[in-house]
């Protein structure tokens, strides 16, 4: 038996933030990140709408990018004191993911972070609160997904929490919030969305319900991402929907090892001055993983279908895969994203010598590869990599080598 779960309501289109007025309850807590929502006036608007709905409102502000276990635990305490019946998370993937994890701890104070990490093993929620998510970036689609990604800073590892319990009740996909994104964020989150859709389409858990969402999202990203990056606001609006469709697909079809590798490399070199930003990591690793997975006959055929839908040409499936890889690399170039870790600068832009030194990368490679294999996203990848293969794959991602194994 398979299950397909989405939020009950998805409000979308310009001005849909106003849907907050329709929420029924007594107390809402609004969770936001570092300040962009406040700066652009969306926080005030949201608080105003919730007050119009008759609710008392409290705030959790300052949730950092790639939120930590510590942030989650502190936020849950604030929720326990305030006792909200609505949790409204607004911003990028980071504050929304953090709020999801706070929700679990708020409803079940006894649950430890380790217990939260048990995939599809979460206790029942909604005894105390419902959850509304409002994305301001066009990538993670956490507003419709069963996932939350939390970073353990001590271990330098990102853990995906996964259960349909944390699929929000209400998503508000208002493109106005995404219009203020700086270019770099458009590029990274857009490539994250493309990776979600492609990984969902070839995942071993793909199905008739997820395929149309994934394939339509892929075409929309193809049609809109580069234009959005270059300032076309109509395309920016379309990307907000595209990423949400991709999220509906991958929340139910799951992901693959591009995400396993992005999760486990993201914070692994933080002591050298930076994170490898999630969307940029995906953008660099996706072409390598496509080449690796295409050795699996079913995946090969499905990548061929993607290339056909994108109108890339090619006769054989092998040829189509090559064209797909070339197309994605071309997008990276147009979006100013490097093709490999060696050229990934601390500011995320391409540079001759990136921030991850070669000797450090090689020294940490066995551990990073082991962690990537153990990531929750590996199980639904069409080809299961051995330790040796994962190390080779990561080396290809470091040096930008062709994957021929
Ligand atoms: N839960 C999921 O299903 C899922 C899926 C993919 C990724 N993730 C996780 O989500 C996180 C990344 O989220 P993200 O890419 O949305 O970025 P983010 O939330 O980390 O935000 C990045 C930066 O952009 C700023 N920002 C956000 N919206 C803005 C706007 N409209 N205008 C100007 N600035 C804005 C933020 O203040 C922040 O400084 C990672 O931790 C990643 O692992 C989760
Ligand atoms: Zn992602």
Lay out the secondary structure.
Elements: E1 9-12, E2 27-31, H1 36-39, H2 42-52, E3 56-60, H3 69-82, E4 86-91, H4 93-107, H5 113-116, E5 130-135, E6 147-152, E7 157-162, E8 170-173, H6 183-202, H7 211-229, H8 233-253, H9 257-266, H10 278-293, H11 297-309, H12 317-334, H13 358-374, H14 387-399
Parallel strand pairs: 1-8, 2-3, 2-4, 4-5, 5-8
Antiparallel strand pairs: 6-7
Bound molecules: nicotinamide-adenine-dinucleotide and zinc ion.
Zinc ion binds at residues 140, 192, 196, 259, 278, 282.
Describe this structure in words.
The protein is of the alpha/beta class and 405 residues long. The protein folds into 2 domains: 9-178, Rossmann fold, CATH 3.40.50.1970; 183-399, Dehydroquinate synthase-like, alpha domain (Up-down Bundle). Helix content is 48%, strand content 10%. The chain has helices spanning 36-39, 42-52, 69-82, 93-107, 113-116, 183-202, 211-229, 233-253, 257-266, 278-293, 297-309, 317-334, 358-374, 387-399; strands spanning 9-12, 27-31, 56-60, 86-91, 130-135, 147-152, 157-162, 170-173. Strands 1-8-5-4-2-3 form a 6-stranded parallel sheet, sandwiched between helices. Strand 6 and strand 7 (157-162) form a beta hairpin. The model has no long low-confidence stretch (mean pLDDT 97). Bound molecules: nicotinamide-adenine-dinucleotide and zinc ion. Zinc ion binds at residues 140, 192, 196, 259, 278, 282.
């Amino acid at each position: 038996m398979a299950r397909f779960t989405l939020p009950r309501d998805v409000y979308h289109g310009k001005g849909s933030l106003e849907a907050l007025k329709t929420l029924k309850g007594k107390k809402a807590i609004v969770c936001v990140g570092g300040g962009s929502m406040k700066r652009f006036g969306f926080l005030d608007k949201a608080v105003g709408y919730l007050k119009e709905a008759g609710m008392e409102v409290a705030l959790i502000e300052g949730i950092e990018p790639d939120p930590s276990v510590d942030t989650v635990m502190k936020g849950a305490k604030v929720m326990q004191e305030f006792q909200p019946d609505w949790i409204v998370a607004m911003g990028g993937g980071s504050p929304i993911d953090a709020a999801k994890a706070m929700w679990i701890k708020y409803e079940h104070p006894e649950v430890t972070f380790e217990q939260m990490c048990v995939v599809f093993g979460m206790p029942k929620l909604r005894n105390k609160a419902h959850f509304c998510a409002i994305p301001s970036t066009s990538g993670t689609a956490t507003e419709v997904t069963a996932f939350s990604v939390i970073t353990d800073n001590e271990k330098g590892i990102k853990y995906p929490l996964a259960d349909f319990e944390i699929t929000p009740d209400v998503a508000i996909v208002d493109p106005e919030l995404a219009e203020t994104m700086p270019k770099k964020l458009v590029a990274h989150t857009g490539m994250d969305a493309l990776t979600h859709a492609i990984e969902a389409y070839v995942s071993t858990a793909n199905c008739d319900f997820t395929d149309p969402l994934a394939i339509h999202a892929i075409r929309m990203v193809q049609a809109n991402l580069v234009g959005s990056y270059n300032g076309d606001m109509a395309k920016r609006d379309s990307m907000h929907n595209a990423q949400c469709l991709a999220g509906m697909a991958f929340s139910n079809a799951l992901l693959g090892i591009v995400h396993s590798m992005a999760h486990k490399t993201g914070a692994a070199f933080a002591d050298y001055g930076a994170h490898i930003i999630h969307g940029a990591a995906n953008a660099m690793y996706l072409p390598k993983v496509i080449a690796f997975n295409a050795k699996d006959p079913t995946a090969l055929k499905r990548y061929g279908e993607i290339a056909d839908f994108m109108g890339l040409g090619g006769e054989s499936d092998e040829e189509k895969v090559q064209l797909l890889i070339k197309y994605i690399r071309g997008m990276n170039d147009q979006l100013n994203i490097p093709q490999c870790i060696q050229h990934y600068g601390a500011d995320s832009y391409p540079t001759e010598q990136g921030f991850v030194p070669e000797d450090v990368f090689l020294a940490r490679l066995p551990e990073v590869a082991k962690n990537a294999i153990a990531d929750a996203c590996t199980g639904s990848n069409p080809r299961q990599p051995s330790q040796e293969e994962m190390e080779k794959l990561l080396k290809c991602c470091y040096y930008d080598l062709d994957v021929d194994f």
